[in-house]
Model the fold of this input.
Amino acid sequence: MRFSGFKIIREGLSGHKGWDATWRDATPKSHYDHIIIGGGGHGLATAYYLARRYGKANIAVVEKGWLGGGNVGRNTTIIRSNYLLDGNEPFYELSLKLWEGLEQDLNYNAMISQRGILNLFHTDAQRDAYIRRGNAMLLNGADADLLTTDQIKNRYPFLNTKDARFPIKGGLAQHRGGTVRHDAVAWGYARAASLLGVDIIQNCEVTGLDIKNNKCVGVITTRGPIKGGKIACCVAGSSSRVMAMAGMRLPIESHVLQAFVSEGLKPLIPGVITFGAGHFYCSQSDKGGLVFGGDIDGYNSYAQRGNLPIVEDVCEGGMAILPNLGRLRLLRMWGGIMDMSMDGSPIIDKTPIENLYFNGGWCYGGFKATPASGLCYAHLLATDTPHETATAYRFDRFEKGLMIDEKGQGNQPNLH
Amino acid sequence: MIINHPLLGPRDAAEFTYLGDAGLIDRPDGMAENALPAFIDYGYLRDNVAGNHRELWFHEQGDRSWLVVTRHTVTHEITNVELASDVARKRGRSK
Ligand SMILES: Cc1cc2nc3c(=O)[nH]c(=O)nc-3n(C[C@H](O)[C@H](O)[C@H](O)COP(=O)(O)OP(=O)(O)OC[C@H]3O[C@@H](n4cnc5c(N)ncnc54)[C@H](O)[C@@H]3O)c2cc1C
Done:
């Protein structure tokens, strides 16, 4: 089934009875050439690009819960490619370009909205760092625009530009950045992959890896064992748990990140704004709620909910730049488990175990990476060589001293 | 979360900063034969369990002591709190 304007009008007139299920809810077969563990954004995108771009067949995605129940359905939906380091920026720029063509590619409305992102700065040193970052972005073919306080006031008159503890001195804008309807990304990839013959198997938790003579030959699941050619782990916050089934310890800690949505408002914030002197970022959903977040809670956690000190911290950050937030009530808040890596950057690599592959360590920036992560992981699975934009995302970068540490924090996952 | 400090009694977790796995107490011997792999392991690899986790907390807004807290990473239930110096001493270190 393809979506089109004509079909919507026809269905509208005939009571919407002609729509099919968005994807096939498959039951597991005994063998697949490719088994992708984890039906989040990255796992589904990997399956799609494997089938579509690399022409592979006989692919399964096994998901322990329901599609979209992990971080892909819990994030604050921001996409951007404003990274500094060479290991990262070409990858994230590839991702942004894929987002720009995604809806046509998938024939699915993911509500991609390039409403722009603005990173505020508050000191001279921070301005210099942002100029450097902006130049690195331009060199990698991304867009970057340094805005003055007046330009910012023009666009966002309600920002606290003057009498704040951290006065706003300007900002680095990426006008191509923006937001995406996160669930629609999971649904869109699932539908497109399913149409290409990928089996999407929900409520099927991987509980063991079948490893013989250092070679992975299948997975044990709550719905029985499944044999596989290549097994690709893609489980975000559960990375350490699944790879422990192969006896591997990872350069990753799991931490909880919270998100918040206010009651609905009339249009107030046209783009995405981030505070530079604390951790706070905010956008407005199409339904009108302000969607915002900040730091992770800071200690290892597998609880998909956060604690109160961070709620206070995030709201303080918000009040510092948007004093008009003070009257708002919070409508909802929730948490998701982040795979925080030792240098703040991800891993897309083979493992020491033959036919077992790994994708993880996305920290709290993996939603924007979804298309490129899927494409690069599919490339690795199909060709056994890293994609040209993902050559730095290797396991051995830690022992080789080739960390990709955007923030310069060192091996302290809760600070990235 | 409340951490029951062995010297000061129950304290709000917000008074503390978090370092990570309590295995960090056991810094490898830099002169040993296997120092390189031991330090890669020490610096970068973690068990990251979903369950009881022994971890280092620093009482930054308090008496500035290091604690080893045993906390469940799914429920946040804290079942044991020790002074890190006691833990190290029990292993024959820092007399
Ligand atoms: C509050 C919050 C805000 C965020 N904001 C942003 C943002 O603004 N921009 C951005 O770029 N990123 C953001 N992120 C990060 C982003 O959401 C994640 O990095 C990204 O979604 C991770 O990839 P995924 O979609 O594949 O993960 P997930 O959707 O978590 O997929 C992993 C899947 O694996 C499944 N799984 C786990 N264990 C097993 C098993 N044993 N067997 C089978 N399946 C298993 C899980 O059920 C899950 O569905 C945010 C995250 C959170 C929590």
User: Anything to note?
Assistant: Chain B touches chain A at residues 1, 13-14, 17-21, 40-41, 43-50, 53, 55, 57, 71, 73-76 (CB under 8 Å). The helical segments of chain B are 35-44, 84-90. Chain B has a mean pLDDT of 96.
